[in-house]
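Morning!

This is the sequence you dropped in the shared folder:
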Amino acid sequence: MPPHIRDALHHQADLRNLIEVVLDLGRPPEARFPNRAINMSDSPITREDLDYVTHRVGAFTQDNRAGIERTLHRISAIRNRRDSVVGLTCRVGRAVFGTVDILRDVIESGKSLLLLGRPGVGKTTLLRESARVLSTELVKRVIIVDTSNEIGGDGDIAHPGIGASRRMQVPRPDLQHAVMIEAVENHMPEVIVIDEIGTEAEALAARTIAERGVQLIATAHGQTLDNLLMNPTLSDLLGGIHAVTLSDEEARRRGTQKTVLERKAPPTFDTLVEIRNREELSVYHETSSVVDAFLRGRSARPEVRLRKADGYEVVGQAAAAIPELPKHRDRERPSQAPSARKTMCIYPYGVSKDRLLRAITDLQVSATIAKTPKDADIALTLKAHEKRQPRTVKDLEDLGLE
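The structure's back. Tokens below.
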């Protein structure tokens, strides 16, 4: 930072909570903290101030991001139409040990994990700490695909915050999916850590990796499960959705319209975590069941975890797995046990016996066809016969048939 901005920062009491410093040409420098933003000077930022910063950081890549070697800080540039830098966002990067304890059981399970949340809630910090725990404490082979050098820091030597993990840098953001596949093919990892899956090619690469039995820990663009599922680019991470046309019988059995949305394939990630803020997470343990419930119009309740000084507390339990639809609808009352059902004798009058028998078989109704009215519990006829031959129908009613 230029000396006058650096001096102003040093006078801030809660400097350790600083999130980022914003330098825009012609505006006062701004320091942003979790709950407030302050102007550090009455003097506007000049081109000399911007040049002072850009000459002291690493080279800007195609995505207008740079870093400071051996640190986790990120400097992002805003350019004008002539490609000159007119603004800088200087993001503070920190390796915070112990942040992953709230999800340690999920990470150690070996299942693939997807993290969602708005910018600034700590997704990248969780990724970095997960890589350190898996590589150092669980001694697993971990590869980090570090597109913006945010996880492992800028420069050729990775930040010690990633532990024993190996870091693969990405030449250009549009090559991230290729580096993901290269990591699996060349370096035999047990775990791959990826920040910001944002394109269809990256989503397909993630599926390819998961199908090879490699544990994935990644973040994606999105805040909640439902808006990720409705995102046509990234919905494949959750199995994808497509429209299916049901037969008349199946639609009747489900009680739905004939065209419904269903999951196309198994989800790439077994577990999904919504990071609501730095202290609260929502964990969906069975992604496939949650997606199926959402597509059927049901709500899926996550497990809510709150971070505490001595660990974490579960304040909301996840709902049970969504049961499969029964093959046939139960025509009996819910309180009536299957073993207590009575076989009903039906006497068909003016109704095809073959069709009636087929319906009984298809619907698995506990019923038989009576040969005479005296052997029957109920009679089945058509309204047309009731009108044309009311006397015969009256005789059946006199026998006590319904």
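Headline: Confidence is low (pLDDT under 50) at residues 320-341.

More detail when I'm at my desk.
O.
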